[in-house]
Amino acid sequence: METSIRNLDDLPLVFDCKKLAEILGVSTFTARNIMHSPGFPVVIAGPRRHRIYKTAFIKWLEEQAEAGFKVQH
What we know:
By secondary structure, this protein is α+β, with helices and mostly antiparallel strands. The protein is built from 3 helices and 3 strands. It is 41% helix and 12% strand. A 3-stranded antiparallel beta sheet has the order 1-3-2. Helix 1 packs across helix 2 (28-35).
């Protein structure tokens, strides 16, 4: 899976599940699981409209790196 994201500055200010999957290099199914995990900073803007703010995502990502990231299915 090729991504145009080279560093955190390249992230859009707000993004969706598809972009999250691209950023993390995972499937959209796995990205949705991550988005629904406790503590993930997702904003629900309506049915099927989940959005992630860049600043909240970076903070969450740093917390996961400190704690040891694991995806639960």
